[in-house]
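Predict the 3D structure for this chain.
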Amino acid sequence: MQIQMTEPVKIFIDNKNAIELCTMLKITHKTSAMNVRVNFIRECINKRVIELHFIQSDLHVADIMTKQLNVQANERHTYRLSIDP
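Done. Predicted structure below.
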């Protein structure tokens, strides 16, 4: 795409443990299977390609594409997607 990136891409995550795992050098026997993926994300963070930001689950609009939601959450996220640029 050859787009010049002037600042890191912001990725919003509703899981504080996932953010901590990707930002801290903390590997346990439980995370060893994910080691390659976590190291890739950590490398992207260190190169300032991406930034991870916490967002509350009820505000996480991407959930509409990844989870079954109740009617109220579905309507709220659909509305937010239609008005955000």
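The chain has two domains: 1-54, 56-85.
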